[in-house]
Amino acid sequence: MKKFQLFAFALAAGLMMGCSDDNSLVEGPSTGSSTTGKGYISLAINLPTQPSSRANDNFDDGTTEEYNVKDATLFVFEGTSEDDAVFTGAYDLEGIGNPSNVGGNITTTYQLTQKITRPENENANVYALVTVNDNNIVDAGTSAAEGWQINKTGITAGTTTVANVKDMIATVDVAQLANTADKGYFFMTNAPLYTTPGGANDPTGGSVVTLTEIDPNNIFTTEEEAKANPAASVYVERAVAKVSVVAGENLATAGGLATEIAGWALDMTNTKTYIVRNVDGANWWGYASTSNPTADRYRFVGSNPVATNLYRTYWGIDPNYDGNGYTLPGEFNNAIGGIPATLKAAGAADYCLENTFNVANQNQNQTTRVIVAADLTVTGQDADSKDFYVINNLKDNILNKAGLDKAVKAAYLQNATVVAALQDPTSGLDDPNTGLGEADLTVTYSSTVEGGYIDVAEVTIIDASASKFKGDAVPEKLTAAGNDDIIAEINADNSIAYYKGGRSYYPVMVKHFGDDSTPWTAGGETSYPGPNADQNWLGRWGVLRNNWYEISVNSITEIGYPEVPEVYGTPDDPVESWISVEINVLSWAKRTQSADL
């Protein structure tokens, strides 16, 4: 193959990098662009901001660890178009320098120079894919036979296409993509951009651009010329979504309950993601809700340009977008039926893989949510431990431990088998007038350390009360297997919720476009009706990479769950909640959401 002269490019994450010294440079005077040998290109790499309100095109830089850069890799493809381009070479982008601050859509920009190999077909278009902070997602292999790899999959010059790379799915722990240790390094790749604006304008007719086309006329024989004439700007985005939960200003009393947020945790998070955000085959660019009264109706494309004729896009396709495989074990991370292993403090952020779906799969068992843990003060709870109990969801009847024991003993004494045994003429009570009371019984429960739903383990007649029965012996029906059957009936009739320390859990599904762009107007419907469901509600729920979802808990009106609740395959709308929240999606694109619980 022939060699490009070095070219300059901007990494629109924005980085300043020196050229790689794998190959020597072409010597001699500059003659501008060259079709033979080696040369320099100058690139600008632009790091993203995060959208920062429920509406599109509101941005927030985030924290420094979210846009630090330690390394980057340039993958070059050639072809007549992005769709059919074929891999030709990869380059470590070394010598990262100091970034420049840009503002708006872009947090920082790094300028760098790099050598690439010119394709044999001089009429072919050349495209750049850049990965930032590779974090073992990208590596150069260990030998000539084990060359460049993305997601442990080899990529081969002349064979691997852009489509092959876009199809790559990573099953990863989110920490590999969002490393917050030390200075922090977040994995980033090219952001899909659109060529016509949305918002108030119908973007139909535009096209999506993910790879950056390199101008071959800006390939030079000297590094200085390349730096002075950038060949391309590459716009990258983080491969994860960001979520944070904050307490509303008047949360403590706004809902009628004395409340304090103890923390929160992500739940129902995706376990796999595309390496590059997938928008292939998207037909939603011109969708607008018929119920959205705002001027900015076209929600899938922004109106604030990141560059001339390039606009941010606000949706994508994840690996289980159409519901394929979502019921498989391990498809989503969750803590259903238990207590979150750890809690993030109110105001702190956490990260997750993007989780999107079509309207047909906009269901609760496929939607990422947060679990808000709140410590409640309610009448009837234990004064010291703050524990309390609720039977059969009767939340207006708060019980402490003594009250729970009393209720369980009453259920035992009213059980038909127990009543019959006490009245049995051969083995029942000696004196029916004396009767059997709560003082004659002890109760134990299934062991639980952190709270949750508990069962009655045993109700036992104390030894001293055996004398109340004929023959001074407790009837066989009230011991051993017979008593086990009675306990099973009590558990079947009574669901006991144990709120340890007064802690209650509230699920809040995360809205993407939410009520601003996709208002729910279907009244009492329990599904997404009508022929315009996609136009009206696609993207209403979900989390998208490089978006920041800030959930503000404004009030809590009822007692929630004693543990992380189950989810079912019912539509996300209409949603009943005991927590009032406001979600702001922050550029990061930041989106805010309020919640009243």
Walk me through the structure.
There is one protein chain. This protein is mostly beta strands and 597 residues long. It has 3 domains: 5-238, no CATH class; 241-274 and 318-378 and 507-596, Immunoglobulin-like (Sandwich); 394-494, no CATH class. Helix content is 11%, strand content 32%. The strands form 11 sheets. Strands 3, 4, 21, 28, 36, 37 and 38 form a 7-stranded mixed sheet that branches. A hairpin with a 6-residue loop joins strand 3 (50-52) and strand 4. The radius of gyration is 31 Å and the shape is elongated. The termini are far apart. The model is unreliable at 1-9 and 12-36 (pLDDT under 50).
List keywords for this structure.
597 residues, mainly beta, seven-stranded mixed beta sheet, six-stranded mixed beta sheet, disordered N terminus
